[in-house]
Amino acid sequence: MLAAIMGFRPFRAARRRRILERSPIPDELWDWALKEHRIFRWLGEADRSRLRELATIFLGEKIFDPVDGAEVDEELRVSIAAQACLPLLGLDLDWYDDWSTIMVTPREYDVRQKDVDEAGVVHEYDDEFAGEAFSLGPVALSRADVEASGWGDGYNVVIHEMAHKLDGRDGRFDGCPPLRPGMAAGAWRAAFSAAFGDIRSKMERPPSRRSARRKGPRIDSYAAESPEEFFAVVCEYFYEKPHLLRSEYPEVYAQLVLFFGRDPAEA
Questions:
Q1: Which of 110, 116, 37 is nearest to 68 (CA)?
Q2: pLDDT tens digits, residue range 137-184?
Q3: The domain 13-169: what is its CATH number?
Q4: CATH 1.10.472.150 occupies which residues in the chain?
Q5: pLDDT at residue 134, rounded to an integer
Q6: What's the pLDDT band for 119 if we cut at 50, 70, 90?
Q7: Dmax of the chain from CA atoms?
Q8: How far apart are CA 67 and CA 106, in angstroms?
Q9: What is the pairing mode between strands 109-116 and 101-105?
């Protein structure tokens, strides 16, 4: 099996070179993407060049599937590709090689959910999704939410769903992706468990006269949903509002710097 994988890599590299040569992102479209999204402003020239290559190959390897009449124009495709590849600047595109399709809806869409409470009673309800990462399957993104991403305000549906894909590389959505060589799983879990416990406690803490004067969690409260959602949300903040994340959860931020191989707050 290993020999087969190693033998496949030269063909993949050759295919990607052809994509770069034959299907480059036009200059004006790339310049628009960089100017349109504030989260790219910290990138140096070398990172901008690498991001463009990653985004170009991403566009050549992924299939965009419009759903419910969604319009998928070139600006949207490049916007998604650039934001999706931002976390890969210190990694590589092979982290996304286990899926191929991006489903685009016009706006948030309804999903029927099931929850089982402590008494074993099943509750069904409708929830609105801005995006979704299917295990061993496609990614779904709302066009309206893609257009609301990348503004440096902490919200980024593209990075959120890509974070789920990174998390699931080891077959589990648990808030801990396969770590890079040299990283300590114990340090990762200690940092993330403490931060997740903190945001959960802030959400569950009853209000008092003193606490009423304080702000609630500075990180989106959706991070308190589960460890995997906490990971996806802090990945958004890592690129959208890195100084806030570093201030709120410095140990988590330090682990993300090690994992992504970049430090947006210091760029």
A1: 110
A2: 899 999 999 999 999 999 999 999 999 999 999 999 999 999 999 999
A3: 1.10.472.150
A4: 13-169
A5: 87
A6: low
A7: 66
A8: 7
A9: unpaired
CA 228/CA 173 separation, integer angstroms? 6
Token reading at 50: 């690498």
Phi, psi of 107 (to 5 degrees): -155, -175
Residue of higher predicted confidence among 217 and 99: 99
| Alpha carbon distance 260, 267 (integer Å) | 14
| CB-based contact 164:129 (threshold 8 Å) | no
Please check the confidence at residue 126 and state whether its pLDDT lies above 70.
no
One-character DSSP codes across 15-73: HHHHHHHHSPPPHHHHHHHHHH-GGGTT--HHHHHHHHHHHHHHHHH-EEEE-TT----
Superfamily of structural domain 174-267: Collagenase (Catalytic Domain) (3.40.390.10)
Phi-psi region of 76 (alpha: psi -120 to 50; beta: other; left: phi over 0): alpha
The answer for residues whose C-beta is within 8 angstroms of residue 46's C-beta and 6 or more apart is: none
Q: What average pLDDT does the chain have?
A: 88
Please enumerate in sequence order all residues whose Cβ is within 8 A of that of 64, keeping only pairs 6 or more positions apart, or say none: 72, 77, 80, 101, 102, 104
Q: Which token pair is 219? A: 């990180």
Retrieve residue 102's tokens.
Answer: 């991006």
Q: Boundaries of CATH 3.40.390.10 in the chain?
A: 174-267
- And the tokens for 191? 């940092």
pLDDT at 238 over 80: yes
Q: What angle do CA 195, 220, 80 make, to 5 degrees?
A: 110
